[in-house]
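sorry to bug you again but im stuck and you know this stuff better than me. theres a chain ive been looking at and ive put its sequence and its fold in token form underneath. id like you to explain what the token line says about the fold, in plain words if possible. anything you notice is useful, everything is just below.
___
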Amino acid sequence: MQHYSVQIFTWTARNGVQQVGSAIEVDALNPKAAAVSLLGLRLEDKGACSKLAVRVWHDDVQRAECDCFYYH
């Protein structure tokens, strides 16, 4: 298991990215499993404007990038 920080957000062209709640700490097998564990909804690798999405950061200070998934 790995440790991840997960942030749920929405975005629109007009308002930009809007965080929904605070970041949540999760232990999971991989970033996608961490995202699914929060809401139990299907995920896609691409999304459309004003949809719900999630950013997942690995608990490794050397890796500043995150994985993004889009709830279907």
In short: The CA atoms of residues 44 and 70 lie 5 Å apart. The chain has one helix and five strands.
